[in-house]
Amino acid sequence: MLISDNIYYCKNCKKVVKDIEDLLFVEDGSSLSFCSEVCIEKFYSPLIDYFTGKIDKKRKDLNIEEEACLSLLDNPTYVDRVLHRPDEIWRLENDLKEEIFSFISKVEFEGEEAYLVALCFVFDHTPSFVLALTASSNEYFIQNFQIGEEVDSLEDYHQKELPGESLIDNDDMEEIELKKSKLLAEMMTQRKEFDIPFEDFALYMEYLQKTVESYDELYEFDDEDGDQALAYFKAFERSGVSFFYIALCMRLEKEDQTLIIPVLSFPTIDGDLSNAYKQGKLLDGNKLAH
Ligand SMILES: [Zn+2]
What we know:
Elements: E1 8-9, E2 16-17, E3 24-25, E4 33-34, H1 37-62, H2 76-84, E5 88-93, E6 99-109, E7 112-123, E8 126-136, H3 139-143, E9 149-150, H4 154-157, H5 170-190, H6 206-213, E10 217-222, E11 228-238, E12 241-254, E13 257-268, H7 271-276, E14 281-283
Antiparallel strand pairs: 1-2, 3-4, 5-6, 5-9, 6-7, 7-8, 10-11, 10-14, 11-12, 12-13
The structure holds zinc ion (ZN).
């Protein structure tokens, strides 16, 4: 290897890596890249403190420091919804073309309207790093997050459309959401403390497609609603850390087509958790998904 060969380095700890694949990106159109989740968190933590300070100050001014709806933030289903199926998306761009996105989701909490809000970076159509997350039923407070321009075509900033997604109607979507919230709640109770934190799942979205397309193992089982479900498993390594990616999918029959819809997908470094999903019948071959 020549001294002058191409190298890449972590913008936080400056560690040199040989391969661009070993880097994590957080912001679209930016060369800021990192060797690990820990470095991402360290790099952006002053910015998180900045927004936390701003939010606390605003709550104090409005006298809403203690709101019961803040408990929504402990529920992964709601947090997942604001990040992946928000009702509003706002985009603020500064003169350096740096973007911050604001995702807002309206929910019902104890009979009244409440909102969850996430300020985040977006990479590859997916929220990649959350700078602030809060909940409120105060509309004046929420207006502080309706910043920049509202992105009216949510599709532009959604997760990439899944194959056949245009065939999925609202009833299907509700069924998928319901299954997802059950599976997510169950998974979170089994998840161990040392595992990859829920907040970092977005950094692993790129592994979903790879897992479904070229899985190591595929199981078919009946879910708790009695519907046939599929579990795809694949082992990966990134920056020397091994992990499994698991995609739990359902089959949907639409206009003579069978669609495979990912319901819940997540990374784990916990072999026990991964094994817990290996139930039902092991299907071999790599044809079923296509
Ligand atoms: Zn680093």
